[in-house]
Amino acid sequence: MPFGECTITLQDVAYQLGLPVDGDYVSGCLTDFHLYIEGGRPAWQWFHELLGVLPPENQVQKFAVNYTWFQETFAECPDGADEETVRRFARAYIMMLLGTQLFADKSGNRIHIRWLPYVARLEEMGRYSWASAALAWLYRCS
């Protein structure tokens, strides 16, 4: 490797971001998206069930929602919220983190709904190898 260059490794990602290395693979591939939707429901119906609200049509581009809508809708969980409301806000927050920090698209202002299968089961999010997915995304984007 020439002087002045460096390569980010899986260990670097795991250490600096605190993400798990071991676990199930993370796939954001949409060719199998329909397989992950429980009961064969349309994606936007599942979105509504998991987050409790649908974005207006002018905030949606194919399978992505404008970040500003997410931010305005889920900016702060209401005081005294019941458990389901807290879970909805947690799902939205995690989708915002995934879509803008770890797996940002080139626009930088859209959240893809490919993350629905992961946030649907909040208890299982720790079983995935998020570090390897983040590193693969970084390599893909560079």
Automatic annotation (TrEMBL):
All copies of domain Aminotransferase-like plant mobile, residue ranges: 1-141
Gene Ontology BP annotations: meristem maintenance
Q: Which InterPro entries match?
A: AminoTfrase-like_pln_mobile, MAIN-like
Q: Which domain of life is it from?
A: Eukaryota
For this entry, the protein name equals: Aminotransferase-like plant mobile domain-containing protein
